Amino acid sequence: PEQLQVSGAALELVRERLQNLPDVSRDVLSAAAVIGQSFDLGLLSHITERPAYELLEALDDSLANDTIVPSPDMPGAYAFDHALIRELLYDELPLHKRCVLHARAGEGLLRRRNAGGEVTRVELAHHFGEGPVQSAVIANRQSIPEPYLDQLLTSLRRAGFIRSVRGPQGG
Q: What is the chain's pLDDT, residue by residue, as a tens digit (171 residues)?
């Protein structure tokens, strides 16, 4: 995946911001980083195995120092204030912990889908390690015109919700 290219000084500023948080807040944010740039309490509760009230307490400090921001569209949902914060938390997680959290996130998303919630195959692939999915495959599976999907994916990539990877033929 593409990595953010930033100066060492910027990384140190973000590290300091995160170090000022209580351990429980950093742990919860690290789990949220596995979910993605934005996350909701339901899925976060599932992967951390903590009740929502504990998560809310842990997230209060993160809200206070602007590490995360509440979603204006969905109650109980949040987003990292900057992609660099999420990247740093994610990259500092030990590989085995990342794998466990991705598996739990995938399980939580499957439960959500089985209960009638909306979950995309891209989300499931991200957590179950199926790797990148070609936009042509997504367009075909979802019956979406490929040019329209490309426009949507470009907007999502620019907003930091997804990452793009060039394939062997440049696509």
A: 444 456 677 778 888 889 989 999 999 999 999 999 999 999 999 999 999 999 999 999 999 988 999 988 888 899 999 889 999 999 999 888 888 898 899 999 999 999 998 888 888 878 876 555 677 777 776 678 889 888 888 888 887 777 776 655 445
Q: Considering all CA atoms of the chain, what is the largest pairwise distance in Å, rounded to the nearest integer? A: 48
C-alpha distance from residue 26 to each of 19, 23, 67, 68 (Å): 8, 5, 10, 12
> What would you report as the CA-atom Rg of the chain, rounded to the nearest whole angstrom?
17
144 conformational bin, left if phi > 0, alpha if psi -120 to 50, beta if neither: beta
Helix ranges, the chain (H): 8-19, 23-35, 41-48, 52-64, 83-92, 95-114, 121-128, 135-142, 146-158
Is the Cβ–Cβ distance between 60 and 21 less than 8 Å?
no
Beta bridge partners of 80: 68
Q: What 8-state DSSP symbol labels residue 70?
A: E
Q: Which of 134, 126, 170 is nearest to 153 (CA)?
A: 134
